[in-house]
């Protein structure tokens, strides 16, 4: 299946979870160390906008990735940003475009990191499958993604480097953690990406 369709489904699932957030929830802690739910949503919104810009050739602009504090209208702002990235990814030729993704830069490299469109959409897909779980965990509600999404996410999760980059402030993923032998496939993905599911 086209990675863009898988991503669309993951983003729609995240929109459904975020729709449960109220203004009173924004101070809740999240699985992302040191982040409140407001911080997490601000990050997710910024990433949607940044990836949309990258799909349209302007990903090198730092303003496209700027994280802005969220207010009481966080749900509507999130939904708008989600629509923005889905529209950008749906444009003709996106899989063949080159995406500039500054957050993947190696310190001291002095060059902007670029990726094929298909890979970049894959990065976005795994990020939002996991961040939807983060939001659900913060709200103490269930999140069970479609098995087809989980199956597609497994090889992407395996390919995410488990190195010192995960220790940087604001890193989307933390070092991998152990899981029980009987853990579900999705729990294994979460553990690979540093989420304690127990």
Structure description:
It is globular and about 40 Å long. Helix 1 packs antiparallel against helix 3 and helix 1 runs parallel beside helix 4. The protein has a two-stranded antiparallel sheet with strand order 1-2. The chain is mainly alpha-helical. It has a single domain, classed as dinb family like domain (Four Helix Bundle (Hemerythrin (Met), subunit A), Up-down Bundle), CATH 1.20.120. The protein starts with a helix and ends in a 6-residue tail after the last helix. 48% of the residues lie in helices and 3% in strands.
- Share of residues in helices: 40-55%
List the secondary-structure elements in sequence, H or E. Answer: HHHEEHHH
For the record, the CATH architecture stands as Up-down Bundle
Structural shape: globular
């Amino acid at each position: 299946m086209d990675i863009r369709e898988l991503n669309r489904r993951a983003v729609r699932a995240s929109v459904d979870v975020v729709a449960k957030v109220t203004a009173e929830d924004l101070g809740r802690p999240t699985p992302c160390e040191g982040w409140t739910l407001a911080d997490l949503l601000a990050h997710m919104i910024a990433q949607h906008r940044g990836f949309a810009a990258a799909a349209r050739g302007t990903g090198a602009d730092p303003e496209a990735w700027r994280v802005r504090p969220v207010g009481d209208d966080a749900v509507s702002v999130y939904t708008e940003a989600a629509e923005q990235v889905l529209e950008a990814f749906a444009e003709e030729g996106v899989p063949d475009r080159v995406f500039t993704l500054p957050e993947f830069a190696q310190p001291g490299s002095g060059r902007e990191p670029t990726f094929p469109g298909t890979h970049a959409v894959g990065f976005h897909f795994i990020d939002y499958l996991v961040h939807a779980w983060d939001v659900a965990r913060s709200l103490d509600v269930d999140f069970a993604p479609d098995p087809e999404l989980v199956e597609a996410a497994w090889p992407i999760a395996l390919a995410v480097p488990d190195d010192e980059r995960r220790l940087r402030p604001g890193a989307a993923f933390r070092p991998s953690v152990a899981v029980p032998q009987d853990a579900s496939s999705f729990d294994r993905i979460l553990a690979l990406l540093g989420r304690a599911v127990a």
